[in-house]
Amino acid sequence: MESIICNSCFEVYDEAYYLSPCGDTICKKCLSPNISTLVSSIGVVNSCGSGSTIDYCNQIVCKICDKKVTNYYINKEIQILLDSLKIKSCSKHHRKETQFYCLDCKATCCSNCKSDKIHKSHQISDYNLILFNSIYYNIEKHIMNKNKNSNNNSNNSNKSFTQLSNSINFNSTKNNVSIKFKDQRVRLHHTFFNNCKEIIQNVNVIKNKIKDLIPKNGVHCKRTFYLKSIELNKNSSISYFNLAITLIDSTEQSITLLDGSILKEDDLYLRSLSIDPNNPFCYFNLAIGLGSPSSSSSSLSIIPTVATTTTTTTTTTTNNQQIIENGASPPIIAVPQTENELHTSVLLPNGKKVNKVGLLIKAIEVDSNYSYAYYNLGKCLKTSSVVFSNSTIMKKKDLFIKYISFHPNHAFAYNNLAINIKPEETVTLLNSGKIMTQSELYKKAIDLNPMYSNPYINLASIICEPVKLLSGQIISKKELLVKAIDIDSLNANAYNNLATNIEKDEIITLANGKQVNKKYLYLKSIDCNPNNANAYNNLALFLKTNEDKIQLLNGIWLDKKSLYIRSLAIEPLNNLMAYNNLANCLKPNEKIQLLNGNWIDKKTLYIKSISIDPSIPRIYINLAKNMNFIEKIQLEDSTKLSKKDVLIKIVDFEPNQWIHYYNLANALKLNESVKLQSMPLVPKISKKELYLKALDLNPDSDARLYNVLAGIIKTNETVKLLNDRVVYTKKDLFLKSIQLEKDNPNTYLNLSLILLHNESVTMLNELSNLDGNCVEQKQQQQPTKSNSNGIGELKLSKKELLIKTIQLDPSNSKAYINLADEIDSTEIITIRKEDKQLVPFTKIDLYVFSIHVFAKNAVAYYNLALNLPTYKQSITLLNGKIMTTRQLLIKSISINNKFSDAYHLLAKILDHDEQIQILIRNCNSKPPVGTLESFGKKDLLIKAIKLNPDPNYFYTLGNYFKNESIMVNCNLSEMYVKYNGIKMRPRDIFIQSFTRIPPFLLLQTIDNPFHYLNDVMAIEIDYSKRQPTIDKFLNLIDINPNNANHYFTLGYYLATKESIQLLNGFQMCKVSLFVKAIELDPNHIQSYFSLYLYLHLTRDPDVTYVTLSNGEIMCKEDIVRRIESMDKRLTDLMFSVSTNTTNGNNSGSIGIGGGGGITTNSLNNLSTTNSTTNITNNGSPSCSSISSTFPAS
């Protein structure tokens, strides 16, 4: 192999020339007549081959023998050998380079060929080692032939040896090929050959020292030479570098120097940099060592990275990333095996800590023409650009453009440049100035290396129509991927992307003739690369349920969840699709264990997806579905979000989707408003405005919008849609909802709740769509009006709307209750069932059927108990259970322990000293836990008052104390009860009842005003013993004729026109007794009030005043002013709005009895306020959501 080294300059031939007549062979550079002879006394004779003659014009002298050259030829034999040794792509393994030389076959080969059967037993040498041996072979030969002074001293010999070791030039013959794992080239600028004569004079001493160092068989001899060089010269920067190079192909982790120091590969590079900080190769190799698992790994080619891009699929979101639950995952772009995360760094001799990117930047700053550093910097750069120390900014694409200027025929570089630009973007190459698009760059890469599969895959990812390659071939998207598989049958990305671009049931034929489908391609992708995360994700989409399984090509069976879990084990950081779709497979509170042993729940999986890409609304939608209104979740950036916040984000992401406004409005309270980023000009938007915005985006496609909007507005309120000039009332909105969705029972129910008793509404519907017995009865009674378009106008009453609701939804418990409240106790209605049979119902039957369809309906039990003829009567339910009134009320309370009316009615039917036990359920515990609590009559009344301070409850409680005072014979004024921590006496209780009744209704709602007045004044009167009481007070007046209360009480028991003779013989009527009480006590307010009632209730038009004993004449107004002077509070309550009574404002009022009554207006407000609840909670009525008129008990 020595013949490839020039015998004059000891460098590898660029062109070898045979000289005549001396017969020496030298290189083209040494042939130049302008260069003086370097070594005049060194000569070696090489065998020369025949070659073509080259004429010469100048006198040429052989630089080896100093003889005149008369002729010279190109030495073809050596030239052929040089061409064979050039490192290039292996003809058999196209992605490998010929880095080795087979001495037996005299041919170059790659690392794969080295292990083939052909070269297995042959002697294989490293190409650089061959050059090393050739150089030192020639040096030894020349030095031995020209030895003239063998007696030089040892010191001069050591100095010369050091110069020798520092002056060797190892230039690679590789000009335009891809990059080595670590750069093994060295650039020396020493002047060994200028000192060659001095070396030759000391040749004998040098020969003895170099004899044992001449490489004979491998790297250890080369390493020994470098070790000796370091021993002789501690500041030999290049020796440290070359010594580090010997560890690249070795399994050793470190080297022991001759002084005993143990240094690793990186330590040797750092030693070299401490001596010469301007060696770019040290920075480069240190950077490559940081990016690899081990610095001593075997030599391999640096493969360009390919950035992952996505293609348009059936469903896409922002940034072309597809993550919809049931969509196909984006195709994988061909990416060679990536390096480890660049989290390590190295401490340079100057004290700076630098990572891989910093080392590559330093290599470029030291040598701006170091092409491989540009390439690898672009490969490992995670950001879009890099800043050099001189403030120069280079983008990722600029780094590859710079590299292409050095290597314009490198296919990998064009491929990497293409994936770092956008499809519509163009770049300008530095050398040629050519402007190229992304597609053209991929085509160029294919043209330079047709057996490189990655450009085919990447080009397929950006095209939709067939393209024309530079070779003239027209090829489609699928054909590109089939070609990639043909080039590399183990390319998992090609199989995955081809599967992504075909239909589910499509069959495609590969280049080898094999027919495959979509599922097989995903399976093959996993088989080629078990670490292909996207292939697992896409394969999981073939499974319909979580229980279905699929068999991989290696025989393993996996279900849907297992496929996503495997995908997450492979790619746990950026695997958005796996996190989202695995969460969709889980139940609301289900947890699943990942392969790393961690347990994770559904919400956390969605949060992981959001942390990867926080701009995909579908994930927020899935998360919101699994949240309640009170909880808050914390994202990985520590942001806390409630369900309302999540819904606001969804609206801001997709402001043109009506359903998002609808969902957000449903999450708000009635008077709540929010700020939307998508509406910067609107300060805040309310619940009603959100519904209106949804209707603006979707005016005629969803009845729910009209339904919920009607549910939140007041009865007399109107709204105007944003895109419509029509003004809608509450009733109109429900009618519009029915027009869009004719079979929604909740809409009919809500419409019925806003109608008054016996009120009707006009329906605009096609006659064919109106069915049911209520419509049939209407048509029989009166003909239906219709217009020219065949649209019928039909009036339906409140009762008929409720019947329609039951026909559409026979399990709607609310409809039965409200229909029962609408009819009389003796009325019978008929409802057509699903079998078209008419079934009769009474009021009691409707309540019973309401309980049958929904057994936890507390209101149904209460109303049923309220409408039984007597409290002692029982009723048989449809399940066969017999229940009394008391049991019905107890059941109602056990279902809803906040049902105040049930407590009040149960208290009224209990005996005075009776105790009952009720199962009270704690609804806040999960599951609800019930405890038995004991209640008496007073306990039930106090419980009812705490839940709802209704005046009837206070009045009933006051009567309870009156009865108890009689039974136990105690003073009523000394009795009390604690209410909200305050002691309340019977008088205070009656006053509470008094103050809670509207003043203008007082006189109409009290059966016996005198009785009520005495209750307020806490006067103990037993009305069941009238005559004994009259006799008693006659005797008391006779004994004490100056007690005003005796006269008043006696007058109280007399009829209006009745008179009585006192024991002293005086005859007195009812009015004279009250006047006598006032004479004895001028501040006797009960007597004044009794006189007022006498004048107010008398039917004699002539009686308009009374005369007191002092002659004072008083009309009703005078009496009121007198009472006001004594007790203004009582006057305000009794007389301040009495004028309203005469104005007729009490129309529509309902009497207040034991069961509790409400006005018609308040009844309507009650039903409309809860109409939204009626829509969303079908079959689950609450006490407040049902309009019921309870008769007085």
UniProtKB/TrEMBL annotation:
InterPro entries given in the database record: TPR-like_helical_dom_sf, Ycf3, Znf_B-box, Znf_RING/FYVE/PHD
Keyword Zinc assigned: yes
Protein origin, superkingdom: Eukaryota
The keyword Repeat is assigned to this record: yes
Record keywords: Metal-binding, Repeat, TPR repeat, Zinc, Zinc-finger
GO molecular function term, any single one: zinc ion binding
Annotated region (Disordered), positions in chain: 1170-1193
Sequence ranges assigned to domain B box-type in this UniProt record: 85-127
Entry-linked PANTHER family: TETRATRICOPEPTIDE REPEAT PROTEIN 6, UDP-N-ACETYLGLUCOSAMINE--PEPTIDE N-ACETYLGLUCOSAMINYLTRANSFERASE SPINDLY-RELATED
Protein's name in the database: B box-type domain-containing protein
Organism, scientific name: Dictyostelium firmibasis
Species classification: Eukaryota, Amoebozoa, Evosea, Eumycetozoa, Dictyostelia
